[in-house]
Amino acid sequence: DTAVSQTPKYLVTQMGNDKSIKCEQNLGHDTMYWYKQDSKKFLKIMFSYNNKELIINETVPNRFSPKSPDKAHLNLHINSLELGDSAVYFCASSQVTANEQFFGPGTRLTVL
Amino acid sequence: DAKTTQPPSMDCAEGRAANLPCNHSTISGNEYVYWYRQIHSQGPQYIIHGLKNNETNEMASLIITEDRKSSTLILPHATLRDTAVYYCIVRQEGAQKLVFGQGTRLTINP
């Protein structure tokens, strides 16, 4: 039943490690997004993919690399994790022509 | 995208109507007003959107002033589960990204 799912829900890791967060949507949408919500609760878009093609890249460090193997999946790989990467990461999806974006439950990343 | 201004917090009694204001004085003609909310520890949830006419759905009503420089989201009979941060977002038609501000933290009190 879950529309947009993310794994893992929690991720605790050391500085310098590489980690991935996975996102899947079963809504048949053609566009997927990654948003970051920092400790001050500001929610900001990072990437947008439409039909596996990168559409939006909001000046995110190149340590962050999104990968879309198909329309239903958008994974986020982060290299050389830094303390400032600690945040909640939300995946979302929509039809490119639609008004509503559906968000996943979030992945809380803690970098020690 | 035009900037929005919302009060940082509001309180409302359970069962009463919650009226959340939003100013968007620099909105342009092709920009829509969207409302999302984020319940604690969950992802944002779409509520409603409109261009210039008032809109109503099963969750809320959206009242947009005639000059479109401000709007009000109305939750007609607030429940404890409506406690959340409510975001007013101005977005061009066809634009993909949502630009979130600080939102209004609405607390529904029993």
Protein model, in words:
The complex is a heterodimer of chains A (112) and B (110). Chain A is mainly beta and 112 residues long. Chain A is built from no helices and eleven strands. In chain A, the strands form two sheets. In chain A, strands 2, 4, 5, 6, 9, 10 and 11 form a seven-stranded mixed beta sheet that branches. Chain A has a four-stranded antiparallel beta sheet with strand order 1-3-8-7, with no helix packed on it. The mean pLDDT of chain A is 92. In chain B, a hairpin with a 6-residue loop joins strand 3 and strand 4. In chain B, 34% of the residues are buried. In chain B, 0% of the residues lie in helices and 47% in strands. Chain B is mainly beta and 110 residues long. In chain B, strands 1-9-8-3-4 form a five-stranded mixed beta sheet, with no helix packed on it. A four-stranded antiparallel beta sheet of chain B has the order 2-7-6-5, with no helix packed on it. The chains are: A mainly beta (112), B mainly beta (110). The A-B interface holds A 4, 31, 33, 35, 41-45, 48, 50, 55-56, 58, 90, 92, 94, 96-97, 99-106 and B 32, 34, 38, 41-46, 49, 85, 87, 94, 96-100, 102.
End-to-end separation of chain A: 34 Å
Structural class of chain A: mainly beta
Number of helices of chain B: 0
What summary fits the major beta sheet of chain A?
Answer: 7 strands, mixed
User: Measured on Cα atoms, how large is the radius of gyration of chain B?
Assistant: 13 Å
Order of helices and strands of chain A: EEEEEEEEEEE
Q: How many strand elements of chain B?
A: 9
- Quaternary state of this entry equals heterodimer
Residue share in helices of chain A?
Answer: under 10%
